[in-house]
Amino acid sequence: MHISSPEPSWLATQDFPQLVTRARLARLVRKLPRARRGWILDSDAYQHLQRNGTWVIPAEQYAAEADRWMRRIGRLKAAAVQDWPTEDEVLAATESRIIALRGPVRFLPDYVRAHQEWTIESYLRLRSLAPRVPWMPVLQGRTSGEYLRHRQMWAEAGVDLAAHSLVGMGSLCKRSGSMLSFFQMTLVIEELARDGIRLHGFGLLLPNQHLS
Description:
The protein has 212 residues and is α/β, with parallel strands linked by helices. Helix content is 46%, strand content 12%. It has helices spanning 10-13, 22-26, 45-52, 59-73, 88-102, 108-129, 144-156, 179-194; strands spanning 3-4, 18-21, 39-42, 76-80, 135-136, 138-139, 167-169, 199-201. The longest helix is centred in the middle third of the chain and has 22 residues, at 108-129.
């Protein structure tokens, strides 16, 4: 399990796997730390999209940053793509972008599908910009069926999720407090694990043996 770190300097001083957001690393003005353990770079998608309604950090900038941090900090295990979470507040923030690009959308699943497609597009774009970075695909959805559909969408895009050391599972932070929802998502996690997909659950408060 990777612990969210409030301070990037902990990478050099603490001996446990950590997750560090891009926003925290970008604020560093002094020498970058050298990591003691493998760590994950979080794109901070939830906060960024809730605040801006779209990605205002160009893919080229994020790719260059990830490549630099990988080389300078070392031991980068995975870098989350600029994914598109599906929590209510994020969908509300991105609604105007979806309408501008696709016209009026009648049903919530159509909003979710747009976010799923854009998440895949982000991975393909970042991979082409910085192929040495261990980019982490992210599964998005609101229901168990939508997560499984997104798995199929990744396959149709030519991405083998089982070939990655980690695959993110997004939009869980609002779900982890509900035992019913947690039980449903556990079934999905176990099905993905049977396919050989190793998951990192963003914001999941309860442990699961199939999650990093």
